[in-house]
Amino acid sequence: MRLERLELGDWRNAARTAFDSDAGVVVLHGENGQGKTNLLEAVWMLGALRSFREARVGRLVRHGREEARIAAVVVGRSGRRRLEWRWRGGARTLLVDGVPTRDLGAWFAILRAVLFCPEQVGIVRGGPAERRAFLDRAAFAADPGHLEVARAYRRAVRQRAALLAAPPVDPDQLAAWDADLVARGAELVRRRALAVAALREPFREAHRALAGAGEVDLRLRGWAELDAASPAAIPAIRERLARLLEERRPEELRQGRVLVGPHRDELDILLDGRPARVHASQGQARTLVLALKLAELEAARRAGETPLFLLDDLGGELDRRRMERLTRRLVALPNQVWLTTTDPGLLGGALRRKAKLLEVAGGRARRQGRRGGTAASRRPGGPPPARRA
Amino acid sequence: MSQDLDPLRRVVAQLARFPGIGERTATRLAYWLLRQPPETAREIGEAVAGLPDAMVTCSVCCDIAATDPCRRCSDPRRSDEAICVVERPQDIAAIEQSGGFHGRYHVLHGAISPLDGVGPDDLRVRELVARIEAGGVVEVVVATDPDVEGDATALYLARLLKPLGVRVTRLAHGIAVGTELEYADRSSVARALENRREL
Ligand SMILES: [Zn+2]
C-alpha cells in the first residue's frame, strides 16, 4: 500500500494544505516547530486511527475551529481508494470513497502503518503493557482481524472485573465469564504466540544488520513451549487458562480483581540472553526497537501485507554508522517510508535519490525541486487527485 | 418545551424526542402533517396515544404483544420443541424473516453486563427456566447478539439449562461482529441458524 496524496483541513497548525506523496520514501524536513511531525501524525491517524502524541483527539483540531479533516489517496491491492477522516463535535466519521463506514476491517484493509518514534524506547525499557501493545500492533500489521480479537478480549476482562468488584459474586455468572475469558483468551494467546514466532527470525536478522553485535531473542513468557501453529494449540491454552482461573479464584474473589489472562502476559525481549528491559543502554534500546519495527514489517510482508513505515525525528539520536545501516535497510524496503528529520543531509545519497523531499514550514509541505529551488507540490493540470463519490 | 404555546413548535419538540430524529426532520414531519387532510393527524395521534395501554407483556415468552398469551405463543402450527432466545422483541422479526425457525420464542429484554449493573435477575431468565421445567422443550437456540455480552449470556444460559435435559445451541458466527440481530440481513440469519452449534 502506498499513500499518494495527503490533504489536511484544520489539523493541528495546518489550516488547509495538500501535497502529493507518490514516492517510495517521503522525507518531511524543516526546522522544529514548523509542523513536520504534525504531518506524520496525520498519516498515522489514517493508518492507525489514533495519535502517537495526544490521547484526546479534540485537541488535534486547529485552535478556534470545530472540525478537522484528513484525506488521502491510497493505492494498493484494492486499487486506488480515497480515505477520509473527519472529527467534529467530539465524534469521528470515516469515509471510504466518499461513503461513510463503521467497518474498521475494511478501512484497515486499505491502509495500515507501522510507527517508530523516539518515545517508543519504552517498548524495551518501559512496563509490560507497552510490550503487549507492541505485540498486538505487530499481529495487527500482519492481520487486521487481530484488532477485533484483542478489543473483545479487553471488553470481556472489564466485564469480569466489574463482576468481581461488586460482591456477592453469583458463582453461575462468574462461571459464564470464566468460560468467555478462556475462549477469547486462548484465541488471543495463540495469535500472539504466532506473532512472536513470525517476529523472532526477522528481529534477529534486523538487529544483526543494525547493531553488528549482540544476540537477541523474543519470548512470550509462560507460553514458550507452545506450538501455536498446531491444531492442538487452542485446546492446550484453554486447558491451562481454565486451570489457572480455578487455582486463583479465591484470590480473585478476595481482591475483586482479574488476576489471570493474557492481559497480564509478558513479552520478554532478550539481549545476549538477559532481559533488555534492565540490561540495555538507551542507545541499545533504540536499536532494539528499530529492529523490532523492521521485524514487524518483515512479518507483515511474509503475510502478504506492506503497511506504511513512519519514522519520527530520525537522525538526532543514532550514531553515524547505525544511521547508514538503517538507511540502507530503508532503501531496500518494499514499504512506503515516511520520515521526519531536521537534517536531510544525514540520510545518505541512496535514500535521498529514492525520496521525495518536502520542506515543512508553517504547517505546509512544499516540494523541493530536484533541480534546486522549491515549487508548490500541487500538480497543475494533472488528473483529478481522487475520485469522489 | 412541552409547555410551549405554539402548537406547531410543540409537535416538533415531541417528534424530536424519537431516537434518530433531529429538530430538522421533526420540523419537516410536522409541516408534512399540516399539508395532509385533518384525519391523518388524528389517526396517527390516536394510534400513538393508545399504544401503552394496548400492549402487554406476554406471560409466556415475555414479548411485547397485543394479547396475552401472544399470537405466536398461541399458534398451534408452531413447534413446542424448540425455543429461540433473543435479547429484544425486534430480534424476533429478524429470525422470522429468515424462514428458518418454526418454534417458539423467548425475549430476555437485554444481556448480562456487569459494567451496566445488569445480571441474570434483571433479565427474563426465571420465566425461561419455568418454561423448560414445564417440559416438552428439546432445544433452546440462543440468538443473543454476537458480541461479548451476548456470548456470555449464551454461556450462562447453557450452564443453567443443560442440566434440565435440553440441547442448548448458539447461532453460528457469520453475522458481522457488533451487528445487532435486528439489522442483520435475511440470508445471513438463515445461514447462522442452519449452522448453529452446540454449547
Ligand atoms: Zn408469547
Largest interface: A-B, 21 and 19 residues
Q: Can you count the beta strands of chain A?
A: 16
What is the overall silhouette of chain B?
elongated
Uncertain runs of chain A are 370-389
Strand order of the largest sheet of chain B: 4-3-5-6-7
N-to-C span of chain A: 21 Å
Identify the overall geometry of chain A.
Answer: globular
* Oligomeric state of the chains in view: heterodimer
- Secondary-structure-derived class of chain A: alpha+beta
Roughly what is the average pLDDT of chain A, rounded to an integer?
Answer: 89
CATH topology of the largest domain in chain B: Dna Topoisomerase Vi A Subunit, Chain: A, domain 2
How many domains of chain B? The number is 2
Cα gyration radius of chain B (Å): 20 Å
- The name of the CATH architecture of the largest domain in chain B is 3-Layer(aba) Sandwich
Beta content of chain A comes to 15-25%
CATH class of the largest domain in chain B: Alpha Beta
**Largest sheet of chain A, if any?**
7 strands, mixed
Number of helices of chain B: 7
What does this structure look like?
- The complex is a heterodimer of chains A (389) and B (199).
- In chain A, 43% of the residues lie in helices and 23% in strands.
- Chain A has helices at residues 36-48, 104-110, 122-125, 128-142, 146-164, 171-211, 233-255, 276-279, 282-302, 320-332, 349-354, and strands spanning 2-11, 14-20, 25-29, 67-76, 79-88, 91-96, 99-101, 113-116, 216-220, 267-271, 274-275, 308-311, 337-341, 355-361, 364-368, 374-375.
- In chain A, helix 4 packs parallel to helix 9 (282-302) and helix 6 (171-211) packs across helix 9.
- Chain B is of the alpha/beta class and 199 residues long.
- Helix content of chain B is 41%, strand content 12%.
- Chain B is built from seven helices and seven strands, in the order H-H-H-E-E-E-H-E-H-E-H-E-H-E.
- Residues 58, 60-61, 63, 69-70, 72-73 of chain B line the site of zinc ion.
- Zinc ion binds next to loops of chain B.
